[in-house]
Amino acid sequence: MIWRTAVLAAIACLFLAVPDVDLMLLSLLHHRSILTHSALPALIPLLFRRRIGLMPAAGALIGLYVHLICDALSPAVGFGQVWLPAPFKMPLGGLSRLWLAGNAALCFLLAQGICRRLSPGLAGPAAVVLVSAGVGIFYGLVNERSILSAAVCLIFPGLLGLSIRRRLLRKLPSA
To answer: From CA 130, how far away is CA 132, in angstroms rounded?
Structure first.
């Protein structure tokens, strides 16, 4: 289980930067492209799942979750908006935050589903809580330089952690 959690964390850290690949493709994509700032980049490891398994896809989803939830805190103006790709290059405007937060939630839920499937009992969800919380705090404090960003990254892992705690308490014999 430890190696799976290590793979999850390593891939999550790698995928923190993936949404900003659009900065290298500004002739085609605007910064915060709808293509890169979504769950879509997680398809990359999914395409190779027969060779590398599903755990890298879960890690990718966690990295995307953290990046997108932090971006959702940005003002939805200028580069803070999500943009459609060429030939349109139009912003989503006020829907940008909804797009980012919705895709962040989707990424987290898919990562949880993959880990639940791959690890028995509560080990999979617990790994998602630990990795997403750890990577989220790191990214929020180091990259975003924001306690608020770090705190927002803890919302979904915190809710999942409470759910795990509830399940564990139900299994304890009553006194």
So the answer is: 6
Length of the chain: 175
Taking residue 92's Cβ as centre, other Cβ atoms within 10 Å add up to 17
Q: How far is CA 96 from the centre of its chain?
A: 16
Burial of 110 (0-12, 13-18, 19+ CB in 10 A): buried
CB 18 within 8 A of CB 36: yes
- Whether omega before 87 lies within 30 degrees of 0, making that bond cis, reads yes
Torsion of CA 60, 62, 66, 71, to 10 degrees: 50
- Show the tokens assigned to 52: 């590398």
Measured over all CA atoms, what is the biggest interatomic distance in the chain, rounded to whole angstroms? 66
Question: Could you read off the pLDDT of 65-119 as tens digits, one per residue?
Answer: 999 999 999 988 888 899 998 788 899 999 999 999 999 999 999 999 999 999 9
